């Protein structure tokens, strides 16, 4: 058995400032060609699917949120409380309890109930007669924020604040933001906590048909969520359900703009939308690296990782083992690792899929001849890999008028 620290591993710097777009994909492919494991700035990097699945599913692994907070000296306060309470940082019985209580609120059926609202928001954001836009600020950014507000039962006028808070709170997973913008992340966490607590107090007094009321009423064999647990779960939904969908939808349109035959096919055959969403998730995952920490020594493929070692599972390389071509008609053997795997598989995956399906179904027939109309500005890959600006152009369409 070889100790991981004794291996002569290739180096992959996932914090490099130029690691975006095709440079990012090329560098990952070159590193993966040297083996399944690399050395990153703070962790080992796992570069194939089988090993990635192993580490994501192993009960000897946990999400290192608290360790990251220690590493970047996150002080006591609302952000530290949120990190401690985040469901991804829970394990064992506490994690099973929370999933059992809130699971019914995140089923495919629950997500489907929100589809009419999604369609209404897309119709509201669409500008009839337009043939160009910067897709990120005009559609990708407001759409998931409007959807999450509707699902939660938050007032529509609060959507800009929710988006701003979610943007910063989600940066708790971004090592660059924790290094450079920690006060902004802390401020957003404190303001968001106060807002959600007030909103839950209103719903406790006057329940409605929304997620807030569902969480307050959640019960499993006599067990109930505490008010503080409800607050943190709502923070999880807001923080994890806005920037992520915004990023994935932006990458979807960028991909389709680069593959016009696929876009035309989707417009002609909207029944392909489920497979199209799967292909977008596979080909350009917005969670390129998912961290796990060894809570005890772990052995895999003749390598021993000590307790405390952190690994970053690379969804991009794992997903692309099934092909380097973007093809919405292809039948893939495995589910993408974009939403993770194992007990911490993304709780909001069904809602995110529904949002992406509705958006692509709406947009494909209204944006024929889709093309990129200027420089695309990418975000970094350390946390959520997003797009900050995506100028698009398209031809007039009867549906778009």
TrEMBL record:
PROSITE patterns named in the record: CYTOCHROME_P450
Residues passing through the membrane, by range: none
Pfam families: p450 (PF00067)
Family: Belongs to the cytochrome P450 family.
Name assigned to this protein: Cytochrome P450
Keywords: Heme, Iron, Metal-binding, Monooxygenase, Oxidoreductase
GO molecular function, one term: monooxygenase activity
